[in-house]
Amino acid sequence: MEEHTVTTRRVIKYATVAVVVIQLLLWIVDGYPMWHIWFSVACHGFYSLLLKEFPFIELTSPVFIASCVFVLVDHFWWFYHFTSEYYRFTEVVTFFSICVWLVPVCHHSYLNLF
Question: How far is the C-alpha of 80 from the C-alpha of 10, rounded, in Å?
Fold first, then answer.
C-alpha cells in the first residue's frame, strides 16, 4: 500500500462503490431494513471524504474521528439487527466483512500508528 498510494486510493474508491451497490441490492432483493441500509450508505459516503487527503490522514481531524464513530454506530446497529432476527452465521460474518468493515479497515489500515 505504501508504495502505491494512487492505486490504493482507486481500490478503496471502487470498493466503496461496490459495497454501496451490494447494500442497495440487499435492500431491494432481500428486504434488509431500509433505514439500516441508508445509514450504511451515508457512512460510506462519509468514509469517502477521507480520500480527499489520502494518504495523509490526521488522527485528530474531525473527519477521521467522525468516521471512527460512524464505524462503531454502523457496526452496533447491524449487530442489533442480526441478533433480533435469525440469520445463519456465515451470512452474518460475510455481511459484516464486506458491507460493514471492508472500507473502514482499508482506510484505517493505511495509518502508521506506531
Answer: 32
Element (H, E) at 68: helix 62-84
* Cis peptide bond prior to 55, omega within 30° of 0: yes
Taking the mean position of all CA atoms in its chain, how far away is CA 94? 13
Structural domain spans, the chain: 5-109
Comparing CA positions, the residue from 36, 62, 53, 60 lying closest to residue 107 is 53
Integer Cα distance of 108 and 19 in angstroms: 17
Residues 8-35 pLDDT 10s: 788 888 889 999 999 999 999 999 999 9
Q: Model's pTM, two decimal places?
A: 0.82
- Could you tell me if 31 and 3 are in contact, meaning their C-beta atoms sit under 8 angstroms apart? no
pLDDT of the residue at 85: 87
